[in-house]
Amino acid sequence: MKKDSAIRKIDWQEYSRLCKLIAERTKSDFRPEEIVGIARGGVIVGATIASLLKIDFFPIKFSRRVSEQVVRKHPKLLVPPTAHLETKRVLLVDDFCKTGETIRSALREINKLKPNIVASAVLARAGQFQPDYYAIYSGGGVIFPWEESPRLGQEFEDEGVPKK
Question: Is residue 3 part of a domain?
Fold first, then answer.
């Protein structure tokens, strides 16, 4: 089976379609009560999906970077989740995932707040990690409308060491 290695450029029209797809799937399957978006791209996606579903949105932020420079092997929690998630059905949203490390870290933090249940969703996935919901698979990476360069998800491919 041939791997898809082309970089996929997503325009605003496709972005809207993909968000609607995730919103429709999660509304019928999961019925979220709150959405948490992982900053940066997940905030854009999460706020859009929350607006489509007419439910509350809250951000969470993890980062390996300081001023756009990769300085950490693993993502560090910078903005914790809100306590409003207790006993709720929470949908955790990001724009892109490959290894799932950030999503798993966010799930751990959210679960500390004792939600009823948490599911994860991304617009685009690559690699082995599979969130509960995703709109597309793009092995070659993606460029979202708010970005200038592709999201390849390969900054920490070799044993967690930043690529130079």
Answer: no
Give the amino acid at 107.
L
Give dist(CA 8, CA 56) in Å, integer. Answer: 30
Q: Can you give the length of the chain in residues? A: 164
CA angle 130, 133, 135 (to 5 degrees): 100
- 91 burial (CB, 10 Å; 0-12 / 13-18 / 19+) is buried
Eight-class DSSP state of 7: P
pLDDT tens for residues 63-74? 888 887 889 888
* Structural domain count of the chain: 1
The confidence band for 157, taking pLDDT boundaries of 50, 70 and 90, is: very low
pTM across the whole model: 0.87
Write the burial class of residue 109 (CB in 10 Å: 0-12 exposed, 13-18 middle, 19+ buried): middle
Q: Within a domain: residue 16?
A: yes
